[in-house]
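Table S2 (continued). Query chain:
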Amino acid sequence: MRLTQGTFSYLPDLTEEEIRAQVEYCLRNGWAVSIEFTDDPHPRNVYWEMWGLPMFDLKDPAGVMHELAECRKARPQDYIRLSGYNRQQGYQSTMLSFLVQRPKEEPGFFLDRMEAADRQIRYTTRPYAAQKPPGQRY
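Corresponding output:
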């Protein structure tokens, strides 16, 4: 199963040049760029772990690309995403977010059915990867 989250998720994975072009777009608009990673890609897990602090006031995409390379070295089996944050309105908004790395095998999710009061049926999804402890999921 191929995880689809964020912008470009239905397109083939972006190349390094395409990622660099998106970073340039973020910086040209004055957006801070952050790198986040996770081994639990559940759609409701919106708070991924941050790789360092968001990069404010950068002008050269080389800084972001260097940090991305370091994150990939340290977390080769995790999902990694880049996000561009706009703080120019006085509050922070995510303007762009896309995956830049995914594990070689993406096990997907299973649908869990539960019976509740009054014969109601409730469903939830759980990632197969979360059945193993963190750090051993991929």
